[in-house]
Design brief:
Length: 254
């Protein structure tokens, strides 16, 4: 079981949950994400990654495991549709993927019972990630050993997250006393992203969240605060990850 006392031995699988709903036919933009995710649609929804020519129909009644997104995506929800998104600790991304049947590039099916889905909804309502982790452990423990993870990768993820992606790769492998090639090899194998990609995604999320918390602040000042060299560097990342400019992106969020 997951309790707050014991996290030194057992790191929770679930880092957070989001419930998306649609009252009219609409499309919501999803930012790139360092965490793997499980989608549980309660009506059919359409999912499409930026840069992809095809959308994927996520069918009601199924569960879908997604590896961390290298780019943003969109999700379309029709009237009264909803979808529960369970965000997974990066340490467990590839371990979970290896135990599932892949149906598309980086997407696998997850089999849930009705009672397990109800338990995940209850966990979301109670904001209880430990309860959600218990449910996923019950579903996944027969196929993989979740709790054998690489301490070097755990420490490198913590360094990146604590700096909001503003640390350099050199600082990470120097602090951990490992070679750059070893860090990159193990990081990509465990997480499904390179350390550099992980840093960039963490940084752009920090920028977006910081602006949304205080929309009145200057984008120019925030650019430097979040570790970008200049605005052209920021715009380049926005174009790659979200296929739009910062101004257009925030205008869509209003």
């Amino acid at each position: 079981m997951y309790t707050q006392i014991g996290l030194t031995e057992k790191i929770a699988i679930v880092e957070g949950m989001t419930h998306m709903t649609g009252n009219i036919e609409n499309q919501q933009l999803l930012v790139p994400n360092n965490m793997a995710e499980i989608y549980i649609p309660f009506k059919n929804v359409e999912f499409k990654c930026i840069g992809s020519v095809r959308s994927i129909t996520l069918k009601e009644g199924d569960g879908y495991f997604f590896m961390p997104r290298r780019r943003g995506a969109s999700i379309s929800l029709c009237n009264n549709a909803s979808c529960l998104i369970v965000r997974i600790n990066p340490l467990y991304a590839n371990k979970i993927a290896y135990g599932l049947n892949e149906i598309s590039n980086g997407i696998s099916l997850v089999n849930f019972s009705i009672s397990q889905k109800k338990s995940l909804i209850q966990a979301w309502e109670n904001e209880d990630t430990y309860m959600a982790s218990d449910v996923l452990e019950e579903i996944l423990h027969q196929t993989i050993d979740l709790f054998e993870y690489n301490d070097t990768i755990l420490n490198s993820i913590e360094q990146i997250q604590e700096s909001f992606g503003r640390t350099s790769i050199k600082e990470i492998y120097s602090n951990l006393n490992v070679s750059k090639s070893k860090l990159e090899q193990h990081f990509n194998r465990e997480v499904g992203l390179t350390p550099k990609e992980f840093c960039k995604i963490e940084k752009i999320n920090y920028f977006i969240n910081s602006y949304l918390e205080d929309p009145g602040q200057s984008l120019t000042e925030l650019t430097y605060l979040c570790g970008y060299y200049d605005q052209s560097h920021l715009i380049k990342d926005f174009k790659y990850f979200l296929d739009t400019s910062p101004k257009k992106f925030f205008a869509q969020m209003k």
